[in-house]
Specification:
With 161 residues, the protein is α+β, with helices and mostly antiparallel strands. The protein is built from 4 helices and 7 strands; from the N terminus they run E-H-E-E-H-E-H-E-H-E-E. It has a single domain, classed as 3-Layer(aba) Sandwich (Aminopeptidase). The chain binds coenzyme A. The site of coenzyme A has 22 residues, from strand 4, helix 3 and helix 4.
């Protein structure tokens, strides 16, 4: 059974994870635990309970803000003219041996669910993501994310009312 868990160095084999993007692999191998301990990000992994040390994919979430002028005209009309509170999914990756099997879709769903839960307590307009290139930008656009006006590799998904 697939399960989302908080990244735990004692339970999850971080070093075996390979997504094909060195920066995203290095982040999980070297920095994810450090940054979690410092309280600047929360990293969650997707595992199969039959082999729960194997990381199938992961994502990270932090608080963030975006300049209202980066959003589309409709959003600009309804939002006040100061930085808009958001959540940021700084990183998301699927292990290369599991890509194309729906893991990325599950990870995005989990991240959005976490954001919807958190915004019951702390307001946030959107989930923003940083795509690592045109291919991952296309992946996010597939899920309805909109590129920011000046920095199109940063995309946002309004979380609704
Ligand atoms: C991008 C990535 C996260 C996708 O994960 P995945 O587990 O292979 O994706 P899924 O199998 O869940 O695909 C889900 C959907 O996205 C679509 N999709 C996948 N990659 C896509 C792309 N580059 N462009 C457009 N759509 C894409 C799939 O067709 C699928 O569509 P469907 O649900 O309508 O059938 C994965 O390829 C990856 O880790 N790549 C390297 C790291 C990276 O680029 N991370 C993202 C930026 S930080």
């Amino acid at each position: 059974m697939l399960e989302e868990q908080l990244l735990d160095p004692h339970r999850h084999d971080r070093q075996a994870f390979t997504s094909g993007v060195a920066e995203l692999d290095e982040y999980l191998h070297r920095f994810a635990i450090q940054q979690s301990k410092k309280g600047v990000t929360v990293v969650r992994v997707l595992i199969d309970t039959d082999k729960s040390e194997t990381v199938l994919g992961y994502y990270s979430l932090s608080a963030a803000q975006v300049d209202v002028l980066q959003l589309d005209a409709r959003a600009q009309q309804k939002l006040p003219r100061y930085p808009v509170p958001c959540f940021r999914m700084g990183r998301l990756a699927t292990d290369i041996s599991h890509q194309g099997k729906g893991i990325g879709r599950i990870l995005i769903g989990c991240a959005v669910e976490r954001c919807l839960e958190a915004r019951k307590h702390v307001a946030a307009y959107a989930l923003i993501v940083d795509a690592k290139g045109e291919k991952s930008k296309a992946f996010y656009e597939h899920y309805g994310f909109t590129p920011c006006r000046d920095t199109p590799l940063t995309l946002y998904l309004p979380l609704g009312k």
